[in-house]
Amino acid sequence: MARDVSRAQKALAVSRWQRFVRSVKRIVTAVSLITMAGLLGFATKLAADRPVEAIAITGEMRHIDRRDLESVIAPRVENGFLLTDLTSIRKDIESLPWVYDANVRREWPGTIRVHVTEEQPIARWGDAAYINHHGFIFEGEFLTRYAELPLLWSEQHKPPVLIEHFKLFQMLLMPHGLAVAALNEDRLGQVSAELTDGTEVQFGDKDFAQRVRRFVALLESEDAANSIARIDFRYERGAAVLRREQGFAVTTVARERGGR
To answer: What is the Cα–Cα distance from 19 to 17, expressed in whole angstroms?
Structure first.
């Protein structure tokens, strides 16, 4: 009987000790969490209060003034290193003329790094815009260095279509040492072109791809590359050709006009 009482007392003591240990663990855990939260809050406040120490701008820039970039960035970094809105900076920079893309990121401990990619014009669009290497139109003042770029314009307000026409025509002309100097679409949808050698081509208002290929086939089938001054493909069959050595147009297999 005494032995049973002794065992019960030992078990009770062990149970009390375990409860005590668990209580201590809970207290230590709570204190640790509170301490860590305090330290994290203190560190976050320090980081949030850290000013932007430098603005690093990189990228090849021929048309963009660094001062314009700095005037856009400076007001955005006044809230500190961590609170600087990188997305707003990127959008503001990409709204500037001649900026194609901007990449903005933080570099610890206090630098905002901005890499700018400029537009690459491949053609002019009217008098106050250009077409970039992705086929999109962007605004930009006329610069004499780009005076020799092909000139495109459409009165149909459908620039993507004319740009696709330009890319196709340019690609098919390259093997013949020729290129597009100008491509125009009037209000009736009539497309005409001028080549770098002075040749004038009238395509009409439909079947552009087919008529371009007919023109290229004509260049390949005879010694015509240097002899054609003007050619009109606004026919269902054939074309009207004015050769450089002639003073009048010669109609070849022309039956019905295909354009308006």
So the answer is: 5
Asked if 54-118 and 150-252 have one fold, the answer is no
CA distance 131 to 138: 6
pLDDT tens, 120-137?
A: 999 999 988 999 988 899
- Global pTM reads 0.70
pLDDT of residue 256: 42
DSSP-derived secondary structure for the chain? -HHHHHHHHHHHHHHHHHHHHHHHHHHHHHHHHHHHHHHHHHHHHHHHHPPP-EEEEES--SS--HHHHHHHHGGGGTT-TTT--HHHHHHHHHTSTTEEEEEEEEETTTEEEEEEEE--EEEEETTSEEEETTS-EEE----GGGTTS-EEEETTS-HHHHHHHHHHHHHHHGGGT--EEEEEE-TT--EEEEETTS-EEEEESS-HHHHHHHHHHHHHHTT-TTTEEEEE--BSSSEEEEETT-SS-EEES--SB---
Given this structure, which CATH class describes domain 54-118?
alpha beta
The CATH number of domain 150-252 is 3.40.50.11690: yes
For residue 3, pLDDT beyond 70: no
Map tokens 């609170």 to a residue: 83
Q: 60 with 119: CB under 8 angstroms?
A: no
Task: Give the residue extent of every domain in the chain.
Answer: 1-49, 54-118, 150-252
